[in-house]
Amino acid sequence: MAELPVPIKDLRLLDVKLGQLPTWLASLNYTPRAFLESCKRGHNRFYAKYWEPKRCGIAGPAMLITAYVVFSYYVVYDHLKEERWRKYH
Q: Taxonomically, which superkingdom (predicted)?
């Protein structure tokens, strides 16, 4: 039995072919409410996949700690760069 074609606006990004990308982008809803809903869906997917207590492993906390370390390094990079050159001058 043949599958029914899915409307392009209902496809996920990974299911869109390169030729369909402009049409798919034009069909998206760009309101602030839609943006917040998509952020909420992404958070819920992340939480369900990596942070649920019954399936919680090391991946979720490791990603958060890694993001924290990278962000902290980014924030203080200018200060570290000046300290690095200070010993030679």
A: Eukaryota
